[in-house]
Design brief:
- This protein is an alpha+beta fold.
- Helices cover 17% and strands 43% of the residues.
- The protein is built from 2 helices and 7 strands.
- It has a 7-stranded antiparallel β-sheet.
- It is globular.
- It starts with 6 loop residues before the first strand and ends with a strand.
Amino acid sequence: MTDSANIDFDIQKVMEYLPHRYPFLLIDRVLECSAGEHLTALKNVTVNEPFFQGHFPKQPIMPGVLIMEALAQATGLLSFCSMDADHKNKLYMLVGIDKARFRGQVIPGDQLILTVNLKRNMRGIWMFEGSAKVDGEVIAEADLMCSAQDKK
């Protein structure tokens, strides 16, 4: 996939790259991907999400840790689109989050737009800047570090 300059793919392609499944797959579609540079993905947030039952029953808000997980999944997609190795033999692991900030809430009915930019890949550690937006407003942002490891 590294030859494509601008990639857009649906849920089937997302599931080909990520091992996550319901209820933990937090990306519905990749809107844009430029291998080795950036990726923009979409998460449609619905009232049916299982975490809303307890967070919070009378005022449902998507947990910040799940917004970070969605950003981490976006970094995995960007890495798999960018690497030359066979992604089917790799498991992508989150190894660090720095400078995480939450600036708003994500509620049912929102479309969460996730953008990740590759800062560098050094000795197998991929470093990214990520942001999550709703209606053009930054809801959360962080620097994320991830590593692709061989599946056992």
